[in-house]
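Reopening: structure tokens for the coenzyme A complex, inputs below.
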Amino acid sequence: MDIRDMTPDDLDAVLDTRKRSFGPLPGDLADAWRATARATLEQGRFLGAFDGSRLAGAARLPRFTQWWHGRPQPMAGVAGVVVNPEDRGRGVGRRLMRAVLARAAEMGDAVSALYPATTPIYRSLGWEHAGAKNNVTLSPEALRAIRLTEPVKLRRMGPDDAAEVIAIVGSVHAANRASGPICWDEASWRRFLDDEDDFLYLADDGYVTYSWDKGDISVDNLVAGSEATARALWSLVGTSSSIATKVTAAVAPDDPVLWLLRERSKEEVERTRWMFRVVDVADAIARRGFPPMISANAVVTVEDPERPSNTGTWRLEISGGSGTASAAEGEGPRLTVNGLSALYAGIPTSTLRLGGLLSGSAEFDEALDAAFAGTPYMLDYF
Ligand SMILES: CC(C)(COP(=O)(O)OP(=O)(O)OC[C@H]1O[C@@H](n2cnc3c(N)ncnc32)[C@H](O)[C@@H]1OP(=O)(O)O)[C@@H](O)C(=O)NCCC(=O)NCCS
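Re-run output (same inputs, fresh job):
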């Protein structure tokens, strides 16, 4: 079995494996998939496992921007991991994922995230449960009742607004000190903003993308940089209340819409979990944002059997909103790379200890909890 880069000639075979894995893609979605697939293979981010000339499995690692405590960094998202049914259970998936991890490191991505359909394969290679995409069900009438405090200019948007949307996403996630959310590249945004079945509205400091889904409304993204814009965009979605019986929306765990509603008690939230991996310890720490009020100095010993350059004792120094990891002598509390990845994503040390991901001295636990605190989320699925 060889692992190599995909070429355009391989795409029909991948679509066949995809069909056997996730079901058939209707014509227009297959076209969109081909466009995305071509873009990722041109970037060297699409790998295949081949038995001779026959495709056995495939995986993509599209690059996203991901914010950690309000600071953006490149992130290798892992998507479309598929193995032919007749090739499963023989280690093809794991070999592919090892190659994906190596490629992410070669490409300079210090962190990676993925939505797992099954956990063990990814966990065994260092990805760990970290955050969620939270889909809350809201009443359209309750959204309609959100009052405007001042007029907000909204306009329909299209592909040429892609750069503006990306700029808004960046400034809102930075201002909110967000952890976890991602942004697509401009070419992907141009494709999304060209979809005639989506309703796309732009304000000066926010936007919403939503669509009909079997008679109800689905909000893919709603990002607002001010109370006035949040009110304007959510109440716009609420104008569907005469037809839609519910609105399902991807939201942050503490999304302001939940505070704008007049009533709030029982909530229906569907969480789709994502896993996260630190690919390069030193770069991942250097690229993460931290609370500027926190000064922390901790020593940890990391075990990463898949990436030996991460294995060893690291001194973590956090101050002024930034951090560094430098190689150190001796032994600190022991973190598996899964534990380090979950810690990076804000999972408390008490959970890591009881979950078997952290052991040894607890002297740095409070400092680590304070430095890495966060409730990571994403608004986008990939
Ligand atoms: C999931 C998938 C990619 C795994 O590929 P594979 O070549 O069969 O995986 P491997 O043989 O390398 O197995 C790797 C590990 O994953 C486990 N695994 C594989 N398929 C699994 C499944 N369906 N459920 C739970 N664990 C599974 C194996 O048991 C093995 O773990 P172990 O060594 O601890 O026993 C493949 O089954 C597939 O294409 N499934 C359909 C599409 C899909 O779910 N893709 C994942 C999207 S995130």
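The CA atoms of residues 124 and 338 lie 9 Å apart. The domain at 2-126 is CATH 3.40.630.30 (Aminopeptidase). Marking as resolved unless the reporter disagrees.
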